[in-house]
Design brief:
Strand 3 and strand 4 form a beta hairpin. By secondary structure, the chain is mainly α. A two-stranded antiparallel sheet has the order 1-2. The protein is globular. Helix 6 packs antiparallel against helix 7. About 65% of the residues lie in helices and about 5% in strands.
Length: about 300
């Protein structure tokens, strides 16, 4: 009888919510899935806009820790009384913007998705502006590929992406982008001046075509994990890898092209205006719009 009573007490104790807390299920939110439907372009665009929100870069360590604490409480099954669904989602989005999904470690600030818009805008603007001299071309192509490598390193999967692989991909992409830019800069001297403005776009295409396959060569050799409806791994598929990697390359290039292809025309127009002789401006406008609307479009098309 005493044994039964002790067992009952153990069960009741585990079911009791800590004072000042309420059951996480009472919020009616599922943080394991995106907040918005991923079946529509609008839902995916809203999702990508949220996870790449540049304002998250400005969050203080105290704000990040508060968001992390709330998410961890949710995962433990209870949250502080008075927590609303909107507050829960805001904490989740802020937490995801700063902490690695696999390791839970705080990510390097410039490698976070929330840093993509401001950093890419600055680098793309510079590549499109300072392209006429060899030193400037080399410096900004190197800067671009270094930033890409930092993003890849920060968001790497520790089980499948070694530092050696990242270094190899970085060197290959930097060399390819720089060589391509210098070659086309030389060739563009015999073409109209406008043609030279598109050289950075060609260099980015070449770099992505080399960088991504090198980083994911293991998937081509061993296949991508295939999971069932429950998320259990049931095998590996090389066919899936051969389809997925070209799509990733295409998506990366598509994301970079809107500002790099439209900005030259806009820059040509704006630079003739006395009050708009800031060459970065057109790149900022185009790049700000392409992140994150084009990732959402690519995922929507291929889903």
């Amino acid at each position: 009888m005493e044994a039964k009573k002790d067992a009952a007490s153990t069960v009741n104790a585990s079911a009791v919510v800590t004072e000042g807390m309420v059951a996480a299920s009472s919020l009616g939110v599922d943080l394991s899935k995106p907040r918005w439907s991923q079946e529509t372009y609008a839902g995916r665009a809203t999702h990508f806009i949220t996870i790449t929100n540049p304002l998250n870069v400005l969050a203080t360590n105290r704000q990040l820790e508060k968001a992390r604490s709330l998410v961890k409480h949710y995962e433990a099954g209870q949250v502080p009384k008075g927590t609303t669904p909107d507050q829960m989602w805001a904490a989740k989005h802020l937490y995801d913007s700063a902490y690695h999904p696999d390791t839970g470690e705080k990510m390097i600030i410039f490698g976070r998705m929330s840093a993509q818009v401001p950093c890419n805008m600055a680098i793309t603007g510079a590549m499109l502006t300072f392209y006429k001299t060899t030193p400037a071309t080399i410096f900004w192509q190197w800067t671009n590929q270094t930033f890409n490598a930092l993003v890849n390193y920060t968001n790497r999967n520790g089980d499948s992406m070694s530092t050696q692989k990242l270094a190899t991909a970085y060197c290959a992409a930097t060399g390819t982008a720089t060589a391509t830019a210098l070659l086309f800069n030389y060739l563009s001297k015999r073409t109209p001046p406008m043609a030279a403005r598109f050289v950075p776009a060609v260099a980015v295409c070449a770099a992505n075509s080399v960088n991504i396959p090198l980083m994911r060569v293991d998937e081509l050799q061993e296949g991508i994990e295939v999971v069932n409806d429950k998320g259990d791994v049931v095998g590996h598929s090389k066919v899936a890898a051969t389809k997925a990697i070209p799509q990733v390359i295409t998506a990366r290039i598509a994301m970079a092209m809107p500002p790099m292809l439209t900005a030259p025309f806009l820059m040509q127009f704006l630079e003739k205006k006395a009050f708009l002789k800031v060459q970065y401006l057109s790149s900022y406008i185009c790049n700000g719009l392409s992140w994150p609307l084009f990732p959402a479009l690519c995922y929507y098309v291929w889903s």
